[in-house]
Amino acid sequence: MSSHNNNSAxxxxxxxxxAAKPFVAQPMSPQDLPxxxxxxIAVVFGIAGVMFRYKLSSWLAIIFCAQSxxxxxxxxxxLKQISMAMMFAIMGLVTNYLGPARPGTQS
Length: 107
What we know:
107 residues, mainly alpha, Protein Asterix, membrane
């Protein structure tokens, strides 16, 4: 009974395997690629972490750097942006944890 169902399913199948063509992605220039928002947010959080000495901002910059690194499309441009954001984030963490204490705070 199951062989009868399989046979009738293949006869009624409207797909044509001979007409199937493999998908070929059209090449895109690096300027036409969508904006990497996580990389941009990482840069903003990294700069805020350094300028305003926010620890949370520096940690968020590292998280967004990792996300941007995982979703990287254009290696050359994205790697520059990610490396800059990572430098700001690390610089912010170093100044927050190893730098002198901010005036008005107790450590």
